[in-house]
Amino acid sequence: MGTESELGTVGVGRRAVDATESARANRRWWDADAAAYHREHGGFLGEADFVWCPEGLREEAAQLLGPPDRLVGARVLEVGAGSAMCSRWLLGRGARPVAFDISAGMLDFGARTAASTGLVVPLVQADAQQMPFRSHSFDVAFTAFGAIPFVADSAAVMTEVARVLRPGGRWVFAVSHPIRWAFPDSPGPDGLTATMSYFDRSAYVEFDAAGVPTYIEQHRTMGDRVRELGAAGFRLLDLVEPEWPDGLTSEWGQWSPLRGKLLPGTAIFVCELG
Ligand SMILES: C[S@@+](CC[C@H](N)C(=O)[O-])C[C@H]1O[C@@H](n2cnc3c(N)ncnc32)[C@H](O)[C@@H]1O
User: Is 80 in the pocket of ligand 1 (CB under 6 A)?
Assistant: First the structure.
């Protein structure tokens, strides 16, 4: 049975949803989908590898978190970590990562992979909109598609990251490229015609027969993201739009070789506090 049918999803639409409704729906979704997600994407993501996006950009090559020698001993927070494969990769390079996620189901996969790999990262269950960490306790924070695309209040996440980072700390996050919301969620030719307004910020909502959301994704424009970062005290150092590499044939949702050659699929914001 697929996650949609398990949760009783009967329809999709766009509407406003608040932070609580969004967090509740996404916790349920990721708990229910954890096994299917790892079956489908686990091979691509690895158990202790750091892949930023479906375009296959690796931290090893991109060094968006900074030079490798600066990561040795660094206190690193992974936001919306899923099963924390990126944190395990960082642990293997001498960093001191802590990984958190809203979904116990995703963290459970992380705990099992820690046991099988021997790479044990502290795992915490928490909502990115209210982080249970002391102020100024991390040198670096990052996420590869965790939390940010799902939270109703992404400005609150930026403020929370700014609070838990030390002055001068680095914050790097990957999300679906904002232009994605103008196009249908399809990897094929029908995914190449803009059918929706890029400026419509209402949430994408899947819902059950009672109208209760079973999955929610949130859209912000590029300008919204830049303004949220500025308001939280971050300087934007770089905005990486990974290009589709020659020879990569795998698809992931709407990400495909066809679309990837024409449109950006991922935006990675590289920021520094203060
Ligand atoms: C696409 S996964 C990304 C995780 C990991 N980087 C990966 O590639 O598997 C999205 C993750 O964001 C988490 N998430 C969603 N909303 C969250 C929130 N409000 N706070 C923390 N994590 C959240 C989900 O539980 C899920 O594990």
Answer: yes
Does the beta carbon of 144 lie inside 6 Å of ligand 1? yes
Each residue's pLDDT tens digit in the chain (274 positions)? 799 999 999 999 999 999 999 999 999 999 999 999 999 999 999 999 999 999 999 999 999 999 999 999 999 999 999 999 999 999 999 999 999 999 999 999 999 999 999 999 999 999 999 999 999 999 999 999 999 999 999 999 999 999 999 999 999 999 999 999 999 999 999 999 999 999 999 999 999 999 999 999 999 999 999 999 999 999 999 999 999 999 999 999 999 999 999 999 999 999 999 9
Position in ligand 1 atom list of the atom nearest CA 34: 27
Q: What share of the chain is helix, strand, coil (3-state, %, to 5)?
A: 35, 25, 40
Select from 156, 155, 195 the least CA-distant residue to 179. 195
The pTM (predicted TM-score) of the whole model is: 0.97
| Any atom of ligand 1 within 6 Å of the Cβ of 97 | no
The first and second tokens of residue 260, run together, are 């990837």
98 C-beta neighbours (distance < 10 Å), count:
20
* 89 CB near ligand 1 (under 6 Å): no
Distance in angstroms (rounded) separating the CA atoms of residues 150 and 157: 11
Cα-to-centroid distance, 182 and ligand 1 (Å)? 23
